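#struct-queue
[09:14] JT: dropping the first one here, sequence first, then the structure tokens:
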Amino acid sequence: MLTPRNEAELSGMIRSAPGPLAVGGGFTRGGVREGEPLSVAAMSGVVLYEPDALTLVARAGTPVAEVERVLGEAGQRLAFEPMDLRALLGTTGEPTLGGVIATNASGPRRVQSGAARDFLLGMRFVDGTGMAVSNGGRVMKNVTGLDLARLLAGSHGTLGVITEVALKVLPAPEATMTLSFQGHDPGKAVACMAAALGSPFEVTGAAHDAEAGVTRLRLEGFAQAVAVRAERLARKLSAWGAAEVSEGPGDWAAIRDVADFAGRAGDVWRLSVRPSRMAEALALAGGAQRLDWGGGRAWVLVPEGADLRGRLGPFGARAVLARASAETRAAFGTFPPEEPAVAMLSQRLRARFDPRGLFNPGLMAARAA
């Protein structure tokens, strides 16, 4: 495995690479990568942290746990709540900040705060020619031109190898409360979550366990204000049943990490669709189901080898194969086919940033070769 210690070493390794590189940090997020493994895990450490400016800069190989520890000591956090999928995917290693940004990994708080890419102030990366590129800065500002940092967020390491990330961070809440409703089917749950998210009570998490029929809503902030908001929200949602209100972090880490699918046999798919159509999509999908993001995202556990995209047909849901055997990935591909115009744009971007096709070739292809 190639383990560059700094950006200069990384550039040299890329320039001299004879073939594909399987780019990663801790390699905890799954996916089939071709080529010689290249890990940025040795490029680690917080470079700059200014709590008063809500700004943190860290190298890509910095463990997420270290970033969260540093922020926690100052009463701050990563607002986009990055998930840890090691239990679900059966992987080991240490999740890194670069991996979070490369996959745009965002948890339940996305419905209120935004995704990982929304907190990017800038980044450094090395492209497929070995050239180091810096984009953005260390303060939030509006600029013209191409925002390369947000372009690379979610590209799964196929456009460049991220070496450093600058992020906006936010204060951690003083208190957390969860409202739970029993007996909802997906349609009723989505309606309940939509009403909650459309309220003025600043819901920071809206999820549903379709097997148990439990819908959960999260409120965060100052303790007294959270208590008042929880009481008022429960009254507003009384048409969906009596809410059970609990204090503390609750089950949100498990919801974030889809923890109750860990160790259960079968393939796990991730669906994205408009919340108003999610119940219809899940009726076609079958299997065990978990909803997040107010019904905009669903995790579905189905028997191994099941063609979930075939079940959904032209419905319009974006189905990503999150966990499966190599044979299933070879049959269906991790990601769904892109529209022709989007596919052409993706090809042009990869040709520009990675002209030799070195970085994670085939990882984001609709169907493995």
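[09:21] JT: and here's the second one, same format:
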Amino acid sequence: METQTARTDIAARAIEIIDQLKSAEGPLLPILHGLQEEFGYVPQETLPLVANALNISRAEVHGVFTFYHDYRAHPAGRHVLKICRAEACQSMGGDRLANRAVELLGINWHETSADGAVTLEPIYCLGLCACAPAAMLDGEVIGRLDEEQLEEIATEVRL
């Protein structure tokens, strides 16, 4: 029963967000952003509500949702570590650091640790090319990332 109540609450709040944003120009992206901001992810049950409100197909909504890497289908961990995978960071050792992050955290890209502590995501340019390799932890950018810093971050996010 509690699960059904939670789903009803999600749907009700989603409809409010959709109604607030559906008259904006090009409303699909703002609506998806609004849903993710509200819930921390875009609940799958809200996608048909979006399609219906915008009079577009569910496939169109799903296509846009899955095209952009920033939208999540599941809640993120308490911490989100994004490691730049763009060329400048790769040329400065980013691949090695990215592989080390996977190893240290014990999760793959777009995964959240079983304890809900951390989500690991690739990002394709933070605009810190001169300070490569770069990462972002919980919205805070980190330039000139090295293995020692990465190990500290891995320990910190597990606390």
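[09:30] RK: nice, looked through the second one.
[09:31] RK: The mean pLDDT is 94.
[09:31] JT: good to know. The chain has seven helices and five strands.
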